[in-house]
Design goal:
Number of strands: 5
Pfam families: SKI
Helix content: 40-55%
Family: Belongs to the gluconokinase GntK/GntV family.
Pathway: Carbohydrate acid metabolism
Distance between the termini: 12 Å
Radius of gyration: 15 Å
Strand content: 15-25%
EC number: 2.7.1.12
Order of helices and strands: EHEHHEHEHHEH
Catalytic activity: D-gluconate + ATP = 6-phospho-D-gluconate + ADP + H(+)
């Protein structure tokens, strides 16, 4: 199984994804590591990515997921904001992909982004992230107001 921890920038995808991977004894991958340099430069400049920017990035991760599944599964942190993005990510494995949506308010996530350092994603892009977000209907939903351990425990209960 490939678990994709999704949500807007600053919701905790990487932290929760790593904790979840540790609990499930699976490999963890961060979707940010798969962005081409042109995407990183664009986001660092405060310019939101468009669908054309995202498509090759999502397709590349879908191909990697085939290998990860053959190796026993993985947890991937990836924004996956639109259903069309999730469709691309699921295109190679179908039902062997499960989404975990980290849901939180714009105010809370804005606070987290303002405190975050060393990340290429500009906090000014939060509005565009929420504008792009199409909340999933078939995902495990985890509220981010909980502690990381509580969030992961809630996810684990939903998985089992």
């Amino acid at each position: 199984m490939i678990y994709i921890v999704m949500g807007v920038s600053g919701c905790g995808k990487s932290s929760i994804g790593q904790l979840l991977a540790d609990k499930l004894d699976l490999a963890f991958y961060d979707g940010d590591d798969f962005h081409p340099q042109s995407n990183v430069e664009k986001m660092s400049s405060g310019i939101a990515l468009n669908d054309q920017d995202r498509k090759p990035w999502l397709e590349a991760m879908a191909q990697h997921m085939l290998n990860w599944q053959q190796q026993g599964g993985a947890v991937l942190a990836c924004s996956a904001l639109k259903q069309s993005y999730r469709d691309i990510l699921q295109s190679t494995l179908g039902e062997q992909v499960k989404f975990v949506y980290l849901k939180g308010s714009k105010a809370l996530i804005g606070e987290r982004l303002a405190a975050r350092q060393g990340h290429f994603m500009a906090a000014s892009l939060l509005d565009s992230q929420f504008n792009t977000l199409e909340a999933p209907e078939d995902a495990i939903i985890a509220p981010i107001e909980l502690t990381p351990e509580q969030i992961v425990n809630q996810i684990l209960k939903s998985i089992k």
